[in-house]
Design goal:
two-stranded antiparallel ribbon, globular, single chain, Rossmann fold, 7 helices, alpha/beta, about 30% helix
């Protein structure tokens, strides 16, 4: 896996990515925000240009937005109320900090070997009972897309097992199919779980 190549694509395609997701609404977003306590602390992991983080901040939440791409962070930090910083998944730190973790189609870039390590770090960073939103692409194996981004694909049962092993309790899931930045139609899953 070449994390550097994936981040390079996001740095070079930041504007195009922002346009590609401008009209897409995650069907779980409103429920996630509604489930947060007033003024709750939220981690937007792999925040991209900060669209979700900005909407969370507008709803009165305290948002920490992280992304490995410096260009994405540059865009995210332009939103009022969003504290954005460059960080990789390996830099998930802290204990019992967040009321909610929004990991929407970010951890799909983690290697299969590192994925359980990242889930365990997120569980430590979550307050007891905190809500996790995990968006991933469905499938099997690992691959690089036409733009040069690395992906790891999972089946629903596999994701639920890994979440359970990290200490999360899965509450529900949604599935769908959409076209992303690379132009391919991909199946996805969005899982809601609790720490």
């Amino acid at each position: 896996m070449n994390e550097r190549e994936t981040l390079k694509v996001y740095d070079e395609q930041a504007e195009a990515y922002q346009k590609a997701i401008a009209d897409w609404d995650d069907p779980a977003f409103a429920d996630f925000v509604a489930a947060m306590p007033k003024g709750g602390a939220v981690l937007d992991l792999g925040c991209g240009p900060g669209r979700a983080a900005a909407r969370m901040a507008d709803a009165g939440l305290h948002v920490t937005a992280t992304d490995g791409s410096m260009e994405m962070i540059r865009m995210a930090e332009q939103h009022p109320g969003v504290a954005a910083r460059q960080a990789t998944f390996d830099e998930i730190k802290g204990q019992a900090i967040y009321d909610g973790i929004w990991a929407s189609f970010s951890l799909l870039h983690a290697s299969r070997a590192k994925f359980p390590v990242h889930l365990a770090a997120l569980h430590r960073a979550a307050k007891p009972g905190a809500r996790l939103h995990l968006g991933m692409k469905l499938g099997s194996g690992e691959a690089t897309d036409g733009l040069g981004r690395f992906y790891t694909y999972y089946r629903r049962e596999e994701l639920e097992r890994l979440l359970h092993e990290a200490g999360f309790t899965v509450a529900s899931h949604l599935t769908g199919k959409d076209k992303g930045l690379a132009g391919t139609l991909d199946e996805w899953i969005a899982i809601t779980a609790h720490a």
